[in-house]
Design brief:
11 strands; about 375 residues; binds FE2/S2 (inorganic) cluster; binds iron/sulfur cluster; alpha/beta
Length: about 375
């Protein structure tokens, strides 16, 4: 194990997946394909304890997420618990399920920030991607309410084949909403997005054109809105340090209390500990899942002797496993990986097809 791995870092962020319930059906949803049911969800008191333990561990920020966190009846109490624990709280919402009154209650309970996702700048396309008619208008209302309440707003957009040509229009929409920040991320291909990869993957040309557009757009909107854009994985030379490195910066708690090093970790054959049986500090320090890929000691070649190994930590474990069947392999995005040809074969975006929408018990297709 390297010296870096031997020193346990403090986590800074906690993603609290309060529920997997959600009225939307986005085909790139980062929730697992096997969704957890309402009956298994942690109760309010347990979330409050998790937040206190997180703060003691060094966590500064909690993302109240889902599914749609608005599906939790106790969302106001949960938000208050985050505030009482001294955490900065960020609500990540689809905009459906939180009306004006509820948002005001959340603000009164201490909510610090709102992040709303948009599926496209064109309402019809946005609702088609979300699999929910009227979602776009609900998002517009939530954004307006957020700004009126004086809460900072981030607009998040996941780009893929159906909307990547409208990056500029989506930034303008976020500006019109009064957002101070816009996050543009490409779909990440595991879980639901892996199932929908043929329908979602943009062509190489589309990805390049979108990247070129961002440079002048950043210049044009400097001082008006912060544009955070993550380069598309499949068209890169090196992988990203997924989640800032496994077990280094953040943890995720699932609706039923399983603690994961990243949101897609349940796709890997690992043992996850639960907050019902262990404290967060024990899980962070000793649980098998967090130990599995922490630091650099687990690496194989070419990562093992690579000069970038403590920069990108070998890329994304979930992507490596999804594409090669070996979670300890170099992320195939890396041009040094012996599996890089798999990415090259997929990155053309030659596929098409219907979406398989994310649903709790059943999957439906439409386009
Ligand atoms: Fe990163 Fe491994 Fe590629 Fe080196 S070989 S750049 S550590 S993925
Ligand atoms: Fe799991 Fe990248 S999503 S390590």
């Amino acid at each position: 194990m390297s010296a870096e791995a031997a020193t346990l870092q403090k986590p800074l962020g906690l993603l609290a997946e309060l529920t997997h319930r959600c009225p939307l059906g986005c085909p790139y949803c980062s929730n697992p394909v096997e969704l957890e049911s309402r009956t298994g969800e942690l109760d309010t008191a347990t979330w409050a304890r998790v937040f206190r333990e997180a703060a003691q561990l060094g966590v500064l920020q909690v993302h109240l997420s889902g599914g749609e966190p608005g599906a939790r009846r106790d969302l106001v109490e949960i938000t208050k618990a985050a505030r009482d624990a001294g955490l900065y709280s960020n609500l990540i919402t689809s905009g459906v399920g939180i009306n004006t009154d509820r948002l005001r209650e959340l603000a009164d309970a201490g909510l610090d920030h709102v992040q709303v996702s948009i599926q496209d700048s064109e309402p019809v396309s946005a609702d088609t991607i979300a699999g929910y008619e009227g979602a776009f208008e609900r998002k517009r209302t939530l954004a307006k309410d957020t700004v009126q309440l004086g809460l900072p707003l981030t607009v998040n957009m996941v780009v893929h084949r159906a909307n990547i040509e409208r990056v500029e229009e989506m930034i303008e929409l976020a500006l019109g909403f009064g957002a101070s920040r816009v996050e543009i991320a490409h779909a990440q291909y595991y879980g639901w997005a892996l199932r929908n990869r043929d329908a979602l993957m943009p062509t190489r040309k589309q990805a390049e054109r979108a990247a070129e557009k961002l440079v002048p757009l950043r210049e044009r909107y400097r001082g008006q809105i912060v544009i955070d854009a993550v380069a598309p994985d499949y068209h890169a030379r090196y992988p990203k340090a997924c989640v800032g490195g496994w077990g280094r910066r953040s943890l995720n708690v699932t609706p039923s209390g399983r603690v994961l090093p990243c949101h897609a970790a349940e796709t890997l054959p690992l043992e996850f500990w639960n907050v019902r049986e262990h404290s967060l500090a024990e899980i962070w320090g000793r649980s098998p899942a967090f130990q599995a890929f922490r630091g650099t000691g687990w690496m194989q070649e070419p990562c093992k002797s690579c000069s970038r190994r403590e920069q990108d930590f070998g890329g994304c474990r979930c992507q490596a496993f999804a594409l090669t069947g070996d979670a300890a392999a170099a992320d195939p995005v890396c041009h040094l990986s012996p599996h890089h040809h798999l990415i090259e074969a997929l990155s053309g975006g030659q596929g098409a097809g219907e979406y398989v929408y994310r649903r709790m018990n059943t999957s439906t297709s439409a386009r």
